[in-house]
Amino acid sequence: MPLPPAPTQRATLLSTASIPTSPRAQSGSAKLSKSDASPSEAQPVAKALHVSLPAVQVETKRIEKKTREVETSAMAPETPTSKPVKTTSPRNTKSKKSGPTKLFVLDTNVLMHDPMCLFRFEEHDVFLPMIVLEELDGHKKGMTEVARNARQTSRSLDALAAQGADISQGLVLAGTGHVDACGKLFFQTQALEANLPSSLPQGKADNQILGVVQALGKKYAPREVVLVSKDINMRVKARALGLAAEDYQNDKVLEDGDLLYAGVMQLPTDFWSRHGKAVESWQQGSHTFYRISGPVVPNLLINQFVYLEAPGEPSLYARVTEIRGKTAVLRTLKDFTHLKNAVWGVTTRNREQNFAMNLLTDPEVDFVTLAGTAGTGKTLMALAAGLTQVLDDRRYTEIIMTRATVSVGEDIGFLPGTEEEKMGPWMGALDDNLEFLAKGDGGNAGEWGRSATNELIRSRIKIKSMNFMRGRTFMNKYVIIDEAQNLTPKQMKTLITRAGPGTKIVCMGNLAQIDTPYLTEGSSGLTYAVDRFKGWAHGGHITLARGERSRLADFASEVL
User: Fold this and answer.
1) CATH superfamily assigned to domain 351-559
2) C-alpha atoms less than 13 angstroms from C-alpha of 519 in its C-beta half-sphere
């Protein structure tokens, strides 16, 4: 029995509303509808749909055109003749510097502080008054760091002037290989008229520089002319005269000392409830390892310590040993607060001290920085860990201790004797801690035992001056750098690069006790080292929080 023909109304609806079909299928269905249904039969259908036949045909053509455009756009990436999609290049995404460039007038103390400061101002121009060159010439003699910087600055200026360009038109700072410096260097080649107050002596060098800044501001208006100086009084006088003045900020690692990397992070209290199901754990030796994932991983760094202390939750004290993508591996710590794990008779008394001792006794960690207030146990822990690894474990051959010889008050003059005898008065902290360590180790051996222990300890500790470190290489040594907050970044680099194979360096300091002039918490060598070494697989840092010296010292640190 033959099948009845398809309903005309359904065919009309499909021909007018089916978008996904191809043009060939649509044309075939249109032919089929024409052959099967007569115009007289299609008229009632069109009336029922309130659509006339011409309107249906127009709609059909519009749908066919739309379908053809959709198919063409889908084939566009594969068709050679199709136009390429316009994308934004990486160069266009970089924000372009807008506005006119500035003209920075450098004070002499900036050049003597950082001889490479000429190349630190990016696209801006640098101007040197003639009086600055005169002051540089007066400070170039001697063996101090200021004299060395003055000589280095003179060599840089000579290399720039040797390009053969017209000095009056400015020297291109990038001509000596410093591609980041896109501006020019200008010298004062003619006299500039300035109207400074009569109360300022005209013969003083600082006032002459202020006069140059004022004259340049009028000459190059509306271009901004800025004085850069490390002298606070100089900047105050400039602002009193209505001149723009700034401090040299390039040497500062951090704007605020509170932003210093602490080396410790507290996990959220709901860590186990949120990450417990996805945590993998395994045992290896005396340590337990955890592989974690989640939103806390991007905030972690290698050798950073994490801890969890929450009521009702199991405590966790661990160190980050591996970070791969969105996962991190934590390793539990050795508990040095217990007497059985005492290091040379010393046990840790708080959480941060336990973290620090794990770093000091780990042979895979070559560089350790300890920061903290007075009485937090920095020197004692470093010496105890050093003596254990030198005398008991034989991991290192000897302990070398040095420090920056910057006095708190007035200098007492030259000291007699050899190098170690001259360094003796600076090593009072070493003597105090050695007395405590020797007493604890030989307490049951009597007077002769304590004396022998003291002699043994002294034979393995060498006191060296920083002034004679250039060119040395320490092999299999345990190096302690005390009072590292008084070191400049350049001095810190000089000391750390002395390390040879098998050497461990421990830097300790209190950023609140900086005695070196022109050195702040943000520009200290200790801050510089902590910021540069964070996240390195063989380096670690801990900021000790609690003082354990005495209740008197703790209270004085808080209220004084």
Assistant:
1) P-loop containing nucleotide triphosphate hydrolases (3.40.50.300)
2) 21
